[in-house]
Amino acid sequence: MRAVIDTNVLIAGILWRGPSHALLEHVRAGTVSLVSSPALLAELADVIERAKFDAILTRTNTSRERSLAEVRRLAEVIEPPPLPQPVCRDSDDDEVLALAIAAKVELIVSGDNDLLSLRGFQGIPILAPADAVGLVGATGKT
Q1: One pLDDT digit (tens) per residue for the chain, 142 residues
Q2: What is the phi/psi pair of residue 107, to 5°?
Q3: Is the pTM of this model over 0.70?
Q4: Are 10 and 23 in contact (CB under 8 A)?
Q5: Rounded alpha-carbon distances, angstroms, from residue 84 to 77, 80, 111, 121
Q6: Dist CA 53 CA 42 (whole Å)
Q7: Which residues contact 36 (CB under 8 A, 6 or more apart)?
Q8: Sign of the four-CA dihedral 47, 41, 28, 20
Q9: 14-20: which pairs have CB atoms within 8 A and are 24 or more residues apart?
Q10: Are 93 and 115 contacting, i.e. CB atoms less than 8 angstroms apart?
């Protein structure tokens, strides 16, 4: 199953246990194919540098550089064209939608309420991490 996984879900999957981590484990196992873009990878690099994550990174012996390198290695990177017109009030969310369309993914995973409130975009479901893990487990698709 090809999926765009929003930055907030990737951060949670890298730093904490729970549904986001389980989803990242599906990516590592090849059950989910992660699709990203240069803009989303840059956003991930920017967000993970925030000082508020220092303690958890130290406590879990997780390196920012190693985590970013792993995501870059796991992801298929596509440069999507912009949407013809804005859909979300946050242009970062439009980047997620544009990528999903360009990459022809089957799923968008986000913890962002603006995206989740759409429930789907052009036939692509938008799910929270727990729901996405349930879907991946139920379908058994590779």
Answers
A1: 999 999 999 999 999 999 999 999 999 999 999 999 999 999 999 999 999 999 999 998 889 999 999 999 999 999 999 999 999 988 889 999 999 999 999 999 999 999 999 999 999 999 999 999 999 988 764 4
A2: -160, 140
A3: yes
A4: no
A5: 21, 12, 24, 14
A6: 17
A7: 4, 5, 71, 75, 76, 77, 78, 99
A8: positive
A9: 14/48, 14/62, 14/67, 14/71, 15/53, 15/56, 15/57, 15/60, 15/62, 16/56, 18/129, 19/128, 19/129, 19/130, 19/132, 19/133, 20/111, 20/129
A10: yes
Cα Rg, the chain, nearest whole Å: 14
Helix (H, G, I), strand (E, B) or coil at 80: coil
* Tokens 């996405």 found at: 132
How far is it, in rounded angstroms, from Cα 115 to Cα 70? 25
Q: Sheet containing 124-127: give its strands across.
A: 76-77, 33-36, 2-5, 107-109, 124-127, 120-121
